[in-house]
Design brief:
mainly alpha; 226 residues; Glycerol uptake facilitator protein
Length: 226
């Protein structure tokens, strides 16, 4: 099959990143602010929404770009030499832009609740929650590497279930994605994170991704024939 053109790949990463962030932020606004649900119900609803939407987005956009939607996923795919550096850099750029667009569109849909399209979050996420980001990012990246290695035909379903499940099973509620973290720095909803905490989240995500890649290379990289 002819290689996809670069603009198609970048468009897929942009829209996938945008819709992923919209699922995370809009679901929290809807249940926390509009429905005034208990926080536990809002988190559960957001986990389900993100899992369902992510599964669909991978199915839709994987044929075009591989459906990364996540700079640390792009980073390890670069390490595996399945993408060149210039393309990886463009992927990461449009992922961040798409995520910020997702924040704005989420706010636009619920403007009467949030009050503005763009604001700096004041939601604190500190202490042991940082370690949660190492764990959940490790799990996500490790799973992606193994699924790609084994040429799984169920990547969308497995990753969707994994992210939704870990959303409810980690102290940080599974950000595991630098572009999502940056996008959530600019919402005053319960989905937000203040920038000082967000930067630490991103550092923890990179650490988790590197640990996952090192573990994969140590134990599984040569386990199967490509």
């Amino acid at each position: 099959m002819e290689a996809r053109k670069l603009h198609e790949k970048l468009a897929a990463e942009f829209f996938g990143s945008m819709f992923l962030v919209m699922a995370a932020i809009s679901s929290m606004i809807l249940f926390d602010s509009v429905f005034e649900s208990p926080k536990g119900i809002a988190v559960f609803a957001s986990a389900v929404a993100v899992a369902f939407v992510l599964c669909a987005l991978i199915e839709i956009f994987a044929p075009f770009s591989g459906a990364h939607f996540n700079p640390v996923v792009t980073m390890v795919i670069l390490f595996e030499k399945k993408i060149i550096l210039s393309t990886a850099a463009l992927f990461i750029l449009v992922q961040f832009i798409g995520g910020l667009a997702g924040t704005v569109l989420s706010h636009l849909m619920f403007l009467d609740e949030v009050g503005n399209l763009f604001t700096v979050s004041a939601v604190q996420r500190t202490s042991y929650i940082y370690f949660g980001e190492v764990i959940c990012t490790f799990i996500l990246v490790f799973a992606v590497l193994l699924l790609v290695k084994t040429k799984s035909r169920k990547i969308s379903l497995i990753v969707g279930f994994l992210v939704g499940g870990q959303f409810m099973a980690t102290s940080s509620t599974m950000f595991a994605n630098p572009q999502v973290t940056v996008a959530r720095m600019f919402t005053n909803s319960a989905a937000g994170i203040r920038p000082s905490d967000g930067l630490i989240f991103i550092a923890m995500q990179v650490i988790g991704a590197l640990l996952a890649y090192g573990t994969y290379k140590l134990f599984f990289a040569k386990a199967l024939c490509d």
